[in-house]
Amino acid sequence: MRTRRLPTIVILIVAAACTLACAVPLPVVPASSPPPTPTSAPTATPTRSTPTPEAREPNYSNTSLGLSLWYPETWVYQDMPDAVAFASSPQLMSSEDWDTGAAFAVMRAELEDGQSIKDLIREQLEASAFTELETTELQPSAIGDARGIITSLEASPPRASMIIKGFVAGVERNRQAYLFLGLSDKDDWPEFGDALEAMLHSVRFTEPVGTFTSEDLGLKIWYAEDWIVEEDRDQVLFATSADLIENEDLASGAALMVRVSSMPDVLLADWLKEELESLTFDAGGLTSDVAPRTVGGREGLIIDLEGVPSGTGSPVAGFVAGASFEGQAYLFLAVAAKQDWADYASTLEKMLDSVEFME
After folding, report:
1. 295 and 218 Cβ atoms separated by less than 8 Å
2. Least CB-packed of 50, 169, 335, 341 within 10 Å?
3. Same domain, 118 and 201
């Protein structure tokens, strides 16, 4: 029997997406769901010339990643921040010696301004640790309810003499990039290729827990589950406590307000300038220049602030962002008590990143 030491799936993620710095095996969770019933078949990927695998009912769900998918009941998986990895055996997941197997990984990252999912896949492949890398042209591929792209690949992993075969697929949703990596030993592809493709075709995107949706305001936005939401006719306010909503003096905690109005016949920068003039401070104020900021897939603007708002006695920090969509102007005001800014900044940024405008 041939025995080879292959890299862990975590190392494969590093090689393919450069998102982790080292391989740290985590607890392995065995599958327990019964085999799902096949349903309809989606569009084929370019990885194989055989018929497209049937879409299967998901038996794995991750509300943080915002997706669910099917995986073989005998496989194991490992959750990581903004990623999940599946492997055909615990030995593969823990980097022990093994003689066969396959792995599948999902990774999520935020696209930079002007960056497309094609750019991201090309950049990650170029930066990967794979050697003798050969890929096909990027081709369209349906992933979940979105139109994605896929490329087949053959390569040598780091510190391994064998050849792997598989695919890298990607899709963009709300400026979030999802990368899907399916790999096996080239000699074992006939055994595992169908399962890997079935995993990709089974992907279903889900709304993250805590998604606020308003047809009247024309948007969706994520918020932390323990925050309070108060919606009015033309605005919605998210806050860390009910007291904060009732008390305009932000002594602690954080809040984000979204206000919608008709977009006047002016440039977005001019409209935002007028809105900013209504923000007055007893001390401090706007602390940066207006900068480009993608909001809900649209070209928006953002500016930082820090100071004591007029009529209050508590210093705050935050930002103001603006964007327009379908004749509507959207103003986003995010603030936190200055001493709490480090605790809430990432949450407020995530809320802005999650915005999705609705027609």
Report:
1. no
2. 50
3. yes
